[in-house]
TrEMBL record:
Pfam families: NAD_binding_9. The keyword Amino-acid biosynthesis does not apply. SUPFAM superfamilies: FAD/NAD(P)-binding domain. This is FAD-dependent urate hydroxylase HpyO/Asp monooxygenase CreE-like FAD/NAD(P)-binding domain-containing protein. It comes from Sulfitobacter alexandrii. PANTHER family: BLR0577 PROTEIN (PTHR40254:SF1). Residues 8-125 form the FAD-dependent urate hydroxylase HpyO/Asp monooxygenase CreE-like FAD/NAD(P)-binding domain.
Amino acid sequence: MPYREGENLPQMLSNIGSREVPPVVETLEDFLRSCDAPTLREFGVSGDDIGPETFYPRLLLGRYFVAQLAALTAQGRGKGHAVEIRSRHAVIDVIPSTDGAVVRFETPHAAGQTSFDHVVLATGHKWSEKTDPSGVVLHAPWPAERLRRFSDCSVGILGGSLTAIDAAVALASFHGHFDETDGTRWIPNSKDSAFRMAMLSRRGLLPDADWYYPLPLPGLPTFNRAGLDLLVTRTSGQTGLLEACQKKLGEDLRLLDPTYAGRARPESVEGYAERHFADRLKQGGWDAARTGLAAATRAREARHTDPWRMALLAAHLTYESLLPHFSAEDRRQFDSELRPVFADVYASVPHRSIRRMLALNDAGVLELHGLGQDYAIAPAGHGVQVSGKSGVMEFDHLVDARGQTAASLADLSFPTLSQGGHFDPETLRVTHEMCRGSTITCAAVPVLLRHNPFVQGLENVEELGRRAADTVLASMTPAKAAQEDRGDRR
């Protein structure tokens, strides 16, 4: 969905650099260098732009993945495998049975079903319009083209991440264009338009501008899984494990970056998020964005990284492995205090995206407001009213760009599977009393988000694919597995 034509606009940027995209048949950088000049111009990219740390339009990454799928298919068929891709098949149910799993589907012309020995659910993100309990319609940011209907309106955008920036860029593109020849300016199609928009998030801050960091990341002195194993073994499932782990991280941060540690006091879980964001909140959203962009630009040119940033980026990988061991109370505290900090570190956005938001603010069409933890949405005549920390605001329409929400197995809309299926987030297996010799593996990111808030990036997706493949291979009988695995792994 994030890279698909028809869902996104050419102006929308991905926030993953070329070096961070796990290669399929070839690297993203190698693929781009093989493209002809007209293809690159289609996406506003020149040969000089191509590099390991460059951010590209979402649609260009989509073009890469389409090419990689074609190359994988050709490789498989070249080795004698039967590979069939059925596009425009909407799966409406997955039905476990004693001798396989039946996939029921609909096409534009007919309905049908096919039985498989193994099924992998990899349905990805799902966006649909929702209705707030107040009765207000919360419009989806995708497909982006649908936002064109909000012409000459005032639009509120819930959220402050790249998803919200995407929505703002789409709306701005329908009402004008960005001139990026000398700096960044937004030029409206009409000076008389009533078009206005506001990004509404809890803190009223834009994401950090992308910052430089080396790969591989340096490890932390003590806050790593090996250093925490004994603590986890002794206290798994007990409330207080999070506090003990965070004290270890705090010690490492005081050693690596005493200035940040003195300001944010990371060793204390309670109130950590507010201390982490305090300086930017004091500056205010737009000033913080400008100073942050300037600092990130200087740091990239010097190839310098604030030690606390690298430390937190490494720490979030360790915490990802610790989440299953937390009690319900520790998990609540983690989501409240630590998750916003880690998201701030790893969800930074391209500098070009920040420059565009600043240009929209300079043009007087984009505001940024902090709603606080408690805010209310209510109908207001033909529009909507949002009230929170920044006061009461009214809009013609409200777009919900707060990101993908967690889902359950039942939310995937496969009724038979959801009735008796049980999902194990550790193994990714979906078990059902009717399943015998077949396997059903769930790698659907929205379902996994309920258990792991970090499982969203392309590196996570690659790992999920490998785990799903391993499940299929492990379930084969030894004789069949040997037959399937002659020379090259299937």
